[in-house]
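Exercise: predict the fold of this chain.
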Amino acid sequence: MKQQKLLAAFLCAATPLACAATSDTLDEIVVTATRFKDSYAGKPINVTVISHDDIARSAARTIPELLSEQTGISVRDFFGNNAASTTVDLRGFGAAAGQNTLVLVDGRRITDPDLSGVQWSAIPFASIERIEILRGSGAVLYGDGATGGVINIITKSYAQTGKAAQVSAKAGSYGTAEVQANVNYFSGNAGIDVTASRLNSSGYRENNRNEQTNAQANARWIRDAGWLALKVDMDHQNIRLPGARLVQPGVGTDLVASNPRGAATPLDYASRDGNQIALEWQQRLSAADVHIGAAHRTKNQKSYFDQGGFPTYRDSDLDVTSIMPRARLPHDLGGDSSLVFGLDVHRWDYALRTSNAAANIGQPINRVSMTQQNSAWYVQNTTQLSRTTSMLAGARNERISMSGSDVYDAAAPGAFFGSAAIPGSFDASKTAYELGVRHQLDDAVALSGKVGRGFRFANVDEIYEQSPAFTNQFQFLRPQLSDTVEIAVERRGNEASWRAALFNTRVRDEIHLDAFSSGTGNTNLPPSRRSGLELEGKWQTLPQLALNAAYTYTDARFLEGVLPGSAPPFLNVDIAGKHVPLVPSHKLNLGASWAMGEKTWLNAALSYVGSQFMDNDEANNLGANISSYAVADIKFMHQSSAWQWNASVNNLFNRSYFNYAVKSQFTAGRYNAYPLPGRTLFVGVSYRK
């Protein structure tokens, strides 16, 4: 008991906003940790839930901005225009974060086997019911790419019996206008929820206009002890790409300071069209829950890069088919227990055509075709060993098969020189595991610990590269392995809650771009580790005032090794003990929600992000870093009958900052940065019936 009180005192000192006494505990329902709806209580998992109310009251404009308010998560944004080209980093993976943070929508992965990244703007806020963040776990249940953890965005299906409709509109800085509509209807044993949205914005930067359209429908039929659901959605985006701002102190150039809104690439642009259909069936059979899910998704992406008069036009198609049967079986072996087991089968068909112009894509210079299939089985058991102690154990085996071919047409327009990659194939199999224990110290405070292993396979964009002679080739890489150890203590209550966690992840054969060796493309890096401390707390200080705080310390370093560069000045770059680029050591979030009246709220958020090394600066010797920055946001909301009015100001103090920059490979002191918007104002109104 003495040790428990000392530990609680330390945590209250570390998170003073979250140490009020209460005996009430929360029995929150989560789905990401078991792939079935289940109680959070008693499970050795590190999960945060962002509720629908949290989303509505936040001043965040996009899902990545919302996620950046959470502990353990940092964000890199190129343009600040509706989350276009934005990466979410869970637990410090830097430039490769997009491939080490697994993102799901309704339990289905939207992290694809290419480098296009998650299309966050394709998920309208109006469609989201909640977001679950599972840190340091997920490899057993979800497989490839869950190194740092899993983010599961859960959309609305249907409301309670009856019908409802909501229309909202928002307008603001940089010519931004957005309209969203949501209709929900449920009668008898069937319900449907439909959401559509449209956004237009000129963007903070020149040549950064963004047009986004989304639509989705969820239908569900309730059966005796089961249900059947159908989901259909589509998204379309057109966006202009302004490029970076050059900084080179040696020649007196600093476009970040002198012209942050300018465009280096006034001719570049990209587009995306996505469609998905998913069917899910769940049924209670005796004591077991059986779930079968199948989905098919297509994505077409087009992009044009002028490259100073040496243009490249790319047109790619990705087709994804997934089949995911699973079951949950309660049993009493070793106490009150449940066993979750299942299969995951994903097949990707990827086709890429390249040319020098959109008009010539009918006769492409290169035509690349690749297929990838991931097949896995998994099993996870949760056992209540005693009234106060539970244990979770699971394992997964996943096999990948890839094959690729390339056709080069020397007669195609723009084919001055080139080549076709020799056809290639790759097969590998990896195993993930997790073992966790949770012990309830009293009615509210619990201590937990876990160990686990995850893996990642290289994706199609990472293996199609050029040799030192600039000939195309497939460069297959070893799978990446990671081993994580974590201990945590938390208190959950209705009036106050806090959590503290220490973690350490060692990574072998990390898959990453080699910026120093010509012709290598991506490579397997020497061993590295990510270790850190996560603190978060929430406190209902008064009936009218709620406070929250989150602090993250991350130490991401290479443990050993030399990157063998092939051209001066990058020869034998020693990275042992060096910091991993694009990972801030310190991050702090503070928030407050004030109920000014029964139907009026004022919400404020402050985010501080510490300095970090730039991309390509594995040697930590550039002499310039991405500077630390602090950004404050506020949002005012008022409810009047069926109407809701809101106004928000982001970057309240008009700070100049950027959170992505890349170091030159050839010129000392030179780098490119992507400035983000200053103060922005948005006003909105919604009507719900």
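Check your answer against the key: The longest helix spans residues 2-14.
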